[in-house]
Design the sequence.
């Protein structure tokens, strides 16, 4: 593990990526989305990943969350080697340990708001009525307590985004990964959501990774990683003022 010169130990690290390479084939061209990425995320911190579109941010967090496979390197999440797991094992690991906020929300239109949020709890074995009750509590926390029986189609884009965030945090995962969580939110709701995420990151056993172009939320970060052309080019420990 690349821990030389670092006082952190493996026990303090939620994510260790070493030499990660991810390729896509586009037409007849081989596109290198991640180019030997080395990256670590500590427990108890909120890490922001920034960079231009196409720099590899979403690909990197999808690898970390076990959604995408990679060709070379090593990705270790809470001492679990992703490339040594079967797809079934990855699915079970992700269901228990990871909450993911997709940029496109991925809500199920035939379910109510509460039923969408309850999905991770039901997957983990909770009874449906208990899961819906817990979902309602989390929806209240993100300001949607009065919309638990609504259809996603009845919500604005910003409201749908808050439902997606509620779904990612409802099962109290060890790692929360967010792809542009404030992109559809105004400044007040964006600040409220980031405050919730920041509070969650204070747990010494949990880590949060937020991909964002939204400079308004940079001040919530403990560290900011900048990506370009499939590489981490800089990690700053200084908070950026909004």
Sequence:
């Amino acid at each position: 593990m690349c821990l030389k010169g670092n006082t952190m130990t493996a026990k303090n690290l939620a994510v260790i990526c070493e030499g990660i390479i991810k390729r896509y084939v586009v037409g007849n061209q081989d596109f290198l989305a991640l180019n030997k990425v080395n990256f670590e995320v500590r427990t108890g911190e909120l890490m922001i990943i920034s960079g231009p579109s196409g720099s590899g941010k979403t690909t990197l967090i999808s690898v970390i969350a076990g959604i995408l496979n990679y060709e070379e390197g090593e990705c270790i999440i809470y001492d679990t080697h992703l490339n040594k797991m079967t797809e079934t094992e990855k699915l079970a690991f992700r269901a228990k340990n990871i909450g993911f906020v997709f940029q496109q929300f991925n809500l199920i239109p035939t379910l109510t708001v509460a039923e969408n949020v309850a999905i991770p709890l039901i997957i983990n074995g909770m009874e449906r009525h208990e899961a819906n009750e817990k979902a309602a509590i989390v929806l209240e926390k993100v300001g949607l307590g009065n919309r638990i029986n609504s259809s996603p189609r009845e919500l604005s884009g910003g409201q749908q985004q808050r439902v997606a965030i509620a779904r990612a945090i409802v099962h109290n995962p060890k790692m929360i990964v967010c792809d542009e969580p404030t992109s559809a939110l105004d400044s007040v709701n964006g600040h409220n959501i980031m405050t919730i995420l920041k509070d969650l990151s204070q747990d010494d056993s949990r880590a949060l990774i937020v991909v964002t172009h939204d400079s308004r939320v940079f001040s919530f970060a403990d560290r900011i990683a900048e990506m370009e052309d499939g590489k981490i080019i800089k990690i700053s420990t200084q908070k950026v003022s909004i």
Summary: The two ends are 35 Å apart (CA to CA).
